Amino acid sequence: MIAAAGGIAHMFGHPFIRNAFVGGTGIGAAAGLVGYFVVLRSQVFAGDALSHVAFTGALAALAIGLDARVGLFVTTIAIGAGMALLDRRAHPDDVVIGSVFAWVLGLGVLFLSLYTTSRSTGNGAAGINVLFGSIFGLGASASRVAAMVGAAVVVAIVAIGRPLLFASVDPDVAAARGVPVRLLGIAFLALVGATAAEATQAVGALLLLGLLAAPAGAAQRLTTRPYRAMWLSVVLAVVAVWAGLTLSYLAPRVPPSAAIVAVATAVYLASVALGSRPRSRAAAGAAPAG
Amino acid sequence: MFAYHFMVNAFRAGTIVAIVAGVAGWFMVLRRETFAGHTLALVGFPGAAGAVWLGISATWGYFGFCTASALLIAALPRSARGARAEESSAIGIVQAFALAAGFLFVSLYRGYLNGVNALLFGSFLGITDAQVLVLLLVAVGALAALGVIGRPLLFASVDPDIADARGVPVRLLSVAFLVLLGLTVAEVSQITGTLLVFALLVMPAATGQVVSARPVRSLAITVGVALAVTWAALVVAYYSPYPIGFWVTTFAFAVYVGALGARRVRRRRAVMVVA
User: Does position B154 have pLDDT exceeding 90, yes or no?
Assistant: First the structure.
């Protein structure tokens, strides 16, 4: 216990931990806020698809010799907006998403093998880093950029928050009231894309769904008020990132991304245990009306 | 090519897997359970990685974890309406956690990195005779079970309410199907890897259902597409330096897009004839 406390005190002496916390806070905040709307709009599957796109984008950029982040942001935002455009109501079908993202992953495998075989600088760990993240590998400038992009995503969501909430809860009434539902759907999926690119740096393409869905799911279990749930989701996501980083620092065999997702999952399970009573009360209250 | 025993085994395993994946995938697409199928596939990864870490064959890890998680998903309470968002976020969390656990096992094992890539993206090299036998036995069992429950399952999938009213055990069928899906996914994962299971499970089935609305015909098309894609991918992967995962997904996707395009052309023609 004392050793653990001492370890935590020394933890911030390491620049790589400070960088991870700076970047991780921005990433966690963006993922928590965007995740709230992803869960509300039942677009978890689309978030999942974007995470696979992130993998391919990063490796494609590496294969042609660019910074992985360029590939990440360009592909996820473009594919996110494109998915929304393809479907009339900006809610693509499961089978279509599934087929597209399986193929996109296949392309990612191709780029991975191109990168590892053709480039002398390439190494086999690149694929693993993109898939499972390498937050302790963030440099000082990279972590500042991650924090700023996270803040920008949060500001953008807050800016479109009210109409987006309306359009998510009742798209038909919102459209009748003149809310640009379709445009909001496209802008939102583009923001999910940006968040996916962000989160890939921290927890990797495969695990970012945990950071998107778990804090948001927990927040929606704990409270039914939208704004409170939104900010609770942000807080839970940031706490999950911090706790995961600390855990991984104390137990070096545990990779940081796995620790972050494990904490987020634990938070969700705890919310299931805690939040069942208010939920059933709300359901009982809603039953006569519906 | 067939002079090499590993290629013969790869074709045997690929054929078995393609047939099971086609049949189970057809029902999965019909029942709109693609997300659950995807989750089962991802759960196979910690299963296999954990088994390797403990020194057991990865095959047991796949089957054990996929079946257990199928039962778990079936046990999740499913309410009638409004629960879809809740359900899919729960499945998403299970997925991410499963992958995190798999990554933890891999880093505890500290094996060589190519092992991870093979688990995630598949490999057709080094399939043993014993593995082919296990694949065959499980496949025959799964197909026999699907054959037995096929008719009521089709009924329950197309119209659960009426099937329920007619006394079909809808809930039991859905649990049984999820377990069969878990077994199938465990089989497919060993060839295509956990991440590319969709290529054989969803795309041929989606193609079959685009081409024909009749159950038997579209099921036959599905199995045919799955077999053709697997064989073509094995041949091309043998002669090219690129991994099999890429070829399987690319061929399957090309067939799916082709089927969608053909349907559009046919519909346009039908509209013109009517006009």
Answer: no
